[in-house]
Amino acid sequence: MDKFVKLTGVAAPLPVVNIDTDMIIPKDYLKTIKRTGLGTGLFAEARYNEDGTPNPAFVLNKPAYQNAKILVAGDNFGCGSSREHAPWALLDFGIRCVISTSFADIFYNNCFKNGILPIVVSQEDLDKLMDDASRGSNAILTVDLEAQEITGPDGGSIKFEVDAFKRHCLLNGLDDIGLTLEKGGSIDNYEKATAASRPWA
Asked: Do 26 and 45 touch, CB atoms closer than 8 A?
């Protein structure tokens, strides 16, 4: 998993509440267990017209936001089913950070396990960030996980809170497998001690 320390990039505004995981990645794209290639299906029902052509009205199809790295979204982001394909699709598109006033619990935790930083802010702060994100190609935000701070295009900053363990994992690029491998020495010592004390096992 890639480390997340500091991210500077275009922030796309998506002022919609209750965006569920089916909207993030429709069920038609759930036939794979690969984490790559899902970016094309991100928000597919909104991004594409019925004939498959891009919908020019959808924010991620607008030239200023096609390479967005940050998403500023409405309340209760990631609700619905627990599909892990949702953070996979965001990551494959290039989104490394989602900012909202609240997230569904399973989606929130899945983000951390896949290298995405979900940030919870107050409604007042979200309104400011949504305004910043509405500036098109000038909608540049910097998210500093070490300082736990978001800096806007005008230099204003917003502090955010994040669980210390989840922060540690993102800063060091540790998913569940990475955390286990960190204990490799202890695991090896345990296995050797077990083999010595129970040679018949």
From this structure: yes
What is the predicted pLDDT for the residue at 148? Answer: 98
Show the CA angle centred on residue 58, arms to residues 94 and 76, nearest 5°: 70
Angle, helices 105-113 vs 85-93, to 10°: value is 50
What does the block give as tokens for 124? 């007042």
Contact 2, 169 (CB under 8 A): no
Residue 106: C-alpha distances to residues 79, 113, 199 (Å): 8, 11, 43
Asked whether residue 36 carries a pLDDT value surpassing 90, the answer given is no
Q: What does the alpha-carbon distance between residue 3 and residue 23 come to, in Å, rounded to a whole number? A: 27
pLDDT tens readout for residues 111-134: 999 999 999 999 999 999 999 999
Question: Among candidates 143, 134, 35, which has minimal Cα distance to 90?
Answer: 35
Mean pLDDT of the chain: 92
Query: Taking the model in full, what pTM does it have?
Result: 0.88
Which has the closest alpha carbon to 98: 89, 90, 106, 110? 90
Phi and psi torsions of 120, nearest 5°: -100, 125
Interval 47-76: pLDDT, tens:
999 999 999 999 999 999 999 999 999 999
14: β partners: 73
Cα–Cα distances (Å) from 28 to 31, 46, 57, 114, 128, in that order, read 7, 14, 22, 21, 35
Write a three-state SS string for 176-198: HHHHHHHCHHHHHHHHHHHHHHC
Q: Whole-angstrom Cα distance, residue 141 to residue 153?
A: 6
